[in-house]
Amino acid sequence: MKMDERAAAAGCEQVDWGGSEPGERIIMKKTKALSNNVHVGLPSPLPDPVNCSLIKGDYRYFHYGCDGQDDRGWGCGYRTVQTMASWLCCNWTPQQNKTRSPPSLQEIQQALVTMGDKPASFSGSREWIGTFEASLVLDYFYDVPCKLVHIRGGGAELEHVAVQELHQHFEKQGSPVMMGGDRDNSSKGILGVCTGDKGSYLLVVDPHYCGCQLENTELQRRGWVAWKRVSSLDQSSFYNLCMPQTAKQE
């Protein structure tokens, strides 16, 4: 079976992004159908959790190169925003009673330029975005405000402030959360939090995967969606949480 036939059989389209030398050809694969609800079936990290709060509703898993654009090394924040936007498409009913598909990387950049948050040179660049930009983008495209929570570095802040905020968010809002920091500047999608007597775990969906669509069980086996101990986070990094506020005001 030829390379293009194998890609088609795996549900992908080949996109040749070239390279500076003949031996450095990079083949990106555009995923035809993104994986849904990739955390389903993942066992609990604790046998008897004191409290476990999870995302409510459906979403799609966006990751590096899933649309054929080679964004490795800079696009993780954009992909997490797209995952969050896919949840809004499935679960959020806007006031104008219409929805739109998750914005492309180019649309996200152009929106930030239009809002005046970024200069014109940002559009078409490879500059990354964080939780603050994520909040602007979701409000711009979906009219959804986001709560931003700053978590200072250190185990106590992460284990208590971050975990408490996440429990409250998933119980009331149910939407995915974006997490990013300074020393640990890799964007993370947070889909749940589980607390036991000896600490807490975060349910992390990692946007850094690059390749053809995998079965959910394989994504879980490879660790692209996994429960991570809060204590395993960089204790010297601060973290920010971007939490879409979709619950109806009482």
Automatic annotation (TrEMBL):
InterPro entries: Papain-like_cys_pep_sf, UFSP1/2_DUB_cat
Pfam families: Peptidase_C78
UFSP1/2/DUB catalytic domain span: 52-242
Keywords: Hydrolase
SUPFAM superfamilies (alphabetical): Cysteine proteinases
Signal peptide: none
Gene Ontology molecular functions: deUFMylase activity
Family: Belongs to the peptidase C78 family.
Protein name: UFM1-specific peptidase 1
